[in-house]
Automatic annotation (TrEMBL):
Belongs to the AB hydrolase superfamily. Lipase family. This is Lipase domain-containing protein. Keywords: Secreted. Its main location: secreted. One of its GO terms (cellular component) is extracellular space.
Length: 608
């Protein structure tokens, strides 16, 4: 927001016909960090809101909670000035709601004290309790707006314990959420889920329903005997259940309670059964994130489990050999198919060690939102592991490790490299991202996603751009396989996007030992290709057509490679800047956008 430009508001995508939301994160948050990004996206996807996101992340970084509390007043002062300027530019304040989580809720309240008008509505998501004095002026209360709605999920610990607003919702007793029982920090987990309850209410038909109560939530499920759903046509009367969140009636007041042992879906899946493990700023342990090493010199030995903090590798594994690190994605594990095929391909090569990061307990189905949030925990714990490994084994260099991440695993490596740089001043020489995950990472800033600043060289393979994988360029070199969206071998699969997403691992695994190689053609950008300005080489198109017609692929590829005088390997991976190899032997001296055709069946590589 630039208050100096009088027409700033009208020159943005702001729509005067929509409601306006001012969204404020809490301690350790940011404009694109989860979980506040979940709520941001829910409002945007709803279609009826303009969202103004307040990023005060630089003033609330961990571990400086005391400083963050001190900073809420100057943040509120600046925000009040900005809101008054926006009103002067045409923002209708009567259709503007301030939504804040934790300390952000108190910023909403404090901001109201510096306005020359009264706020219409405030929605407070588990307002922060630590260091917020009861009855003081440095806090939210119901006098800060015409209508203040509060959702309590961790009252008495991280969240406020008493009545705060005109209407206060108590979720599962308001203190500890039952589905956070397997989290190492049950209170923090409970505190954050308040955001998802509001996000869920933005989806038609999924509004959580609450019943009137006094101080304690009832032990029986809501909408039981004696409790009737409110009638929208005639409003809501005492004794009726009302929706919590978006559709809470403005005339409702008092305490309302919800009893539900299942977590809210966050934000778009209607069912999310079972506990979803959530970790943030928690100690790293092998109970949640396990690290294994394989050696090509001893393939029969199987994986060796290493300590996550103080790892010691057996003497028979030589760490001065080539070292690879593989991180799986959502729903994965050490035996995840994508992880396994790459690992097996590397173990066919001599003098190679493969490290596996198994963070499967933090990525369980169907808990994608928490899995996306847990990428930070997994990445930082991986950095802790590598720092310990380097300290215990001087012959090992974390910097020289080639890190490969599939889907969410690609973003895990971003956090790993950033943590390494912050802790010991190094980052990876190379990261390979295999179709980096798109959901919740669509508009993330560089510090919350894989980008070319995370390593000296970042190469990315796109196979399902725009659905499961990111469409934007993420590395120094971005390869779009068969156009980057749908892969030819997935046409008949029941889930074509997921099949295409998985193909990124299959292509990369084949590239490790391929006789022919995945040769890529340069294009100025993805959109130049999309609009038909870039074409594959005619020879490749003809070759692909003949393969589909049933001709023998091996003889054709051998002849083509021999005719071109190309021998695959690390020293012959670039013909010119317009023709390079994709995969294991990608040159680290080139940059840009490249397109790669493949065969629909193995071997996928078409050769030169």
């Amino acid at each position: 927001f630039d208050h100096r430009l009088r027409d700033w508001l009208n020159n943005t995508e702001w729509d005067h016909s929509k409601e306006n939301i001012i969204l404020i994160h809490g301690y350790a948050g940011g404009d694109d960090t989860l979980p506040i990004a979940v709520l941001r996206d829910a409002y945007i996807n709803h279609g009826g809101y303009n969202v103004f996101l307040v990023d005060w992340g630089a003033l609330c970084q961990p571990p400086c909670y005391v400083a963050a509390v001190y900073n809420i007043r100057p943040v509120a002062t600046c925000l009040a000035q900005s809101l008054m300027q926006l009103r002067d530019l045409g923002l209708p304040v009567e259709r503007t709601t301030c939504v804040g989580h934790s300390l952000g809720a108190h910023i909403c309240g404090l901001m109201a004290n510096y306005l020359n008008f009264r706020m219409e509505r405030i929605i407070a998501l588990d307002p922060a309790r630590p260091l917020i004095k009861p009855g003081g002026v440095n806090r939210l209360d119901q006098g800060d707006a015409k209508y203040v709605q509060v959702i309590h999920t961790n009252a008495g610990h991280y969240g406020e314990g008493g009545r705060v607003g005109h209407i206060d919702f108590c979720v599962n007793g308001g203190r500890r959420q039952p589905y956070c029982g397997n989290s190492a920090n049950i209170n923090l987990c409970s505190h954050i889920w308040a955001i998802c309850y509001l996000a869920q209410s933005l989806y038609e038909g999924h509004e959580p329903m609450a019943e009137p109560c006094s101080r304690r939530c009832p032990s029986t499920a809501i909408l039981g005997s004696g409790i009737r759903q409110g009638r929208r046509r005639f409003g809501y009367a005492m004794g009726y259940a009302i929706p919590m969140g978006l559709k809470t009636p403005p005339n409702a007041s008092g305490s309302y309670c919800i009893k539900d042992n299942n977590p809210p879906f966050c934000p778009s899946k209607p069912s999310m059964p079972g506990p979803c493990q959530f970790q943030y700023l928690e100690p790293c342990t092998s109970k949640t994130i396990a690290f294994y090493v394989f050696s090509s010199e001893h393939p029969q030995d199987g994986p060796v489990l290493l300590d996550s903090i103080d790892p010691h590798v057996p003497e028979h594994i030589r760490l001065n050999h080539t070292n690879k690190l593989i991180v799986h994605g959502y729903g994965g594990s050490i035996d995840f198919n994508a992880t396994k095929m790459i690992r097996k391909a590397y173990l066919r090569k001599p003098n190679t060690n493969v490290f596996i990061v198994d963070w499967g307990k933090l990525t369980r189905l169907p808990c994608y939102p928490t899995a996306a949030f847990n990428t930070k925990q997994a990445g930082e714990c991986t950095a802790t592991f590598l720092i310990g490994l380097q300290a215990n084994h001087p012959e090992f260099s974390a910097r020289d490790l080639h890190a490969i991440g599939f889907s969410l695993g690609a973003h895990v490596l971003s956090f790993t490299s950033n943590a390494l740089e912050k802790s010991i001043g190094i980052k990876f020489r190379r990261i390979t991202g295999l179709d980096p995950a798109l959901p919740f990472f669509a508009t993330a800033r560089p510090h919350w996603k894989l980008d070319q600043g995370d390593a000296d060289f970042v190469d990315v393979i796109h196979t399902n751009a725009g659905v499961y994988g990111k469409i934007e360029t993420c590395g120094h070199v971005d390869f779009y396989m068969n156009g980057g969206q749908n892969q030819p071998g997935c046409d008949k699969d029941s889930n074509q996007p997921l099949c295409s997403h998985m193909m990124s691992a299959a292509y990369f695994a084949e590239s490790i030992n391929s006789k022919y190689g995945f040769w890529a053609t340069r294009c100025t950008s993805y959109f130049a290709y999309f609009f038909g300005f870039c074409k594959y080489r005619v020879e490749q198109q003809q070759q692909q057509q003949s393969l589909i017609a049933g001709e023998d692929s091996s003889s054709r590829q051998e002849e083509t490679a021999a005719h071109a005088g190309v021998a695959l390997g690390e020293n012959n991976n670039v013909l010119d800047t317009n023709r390079i190899l994709m995969g294991e032997y990608c040159s680290n001296t080139v940059e840009g956008v490249y397109f790669v055709p493949t065969n629909p069946v193995p071997p996928f590589a078409m050769g030169f």
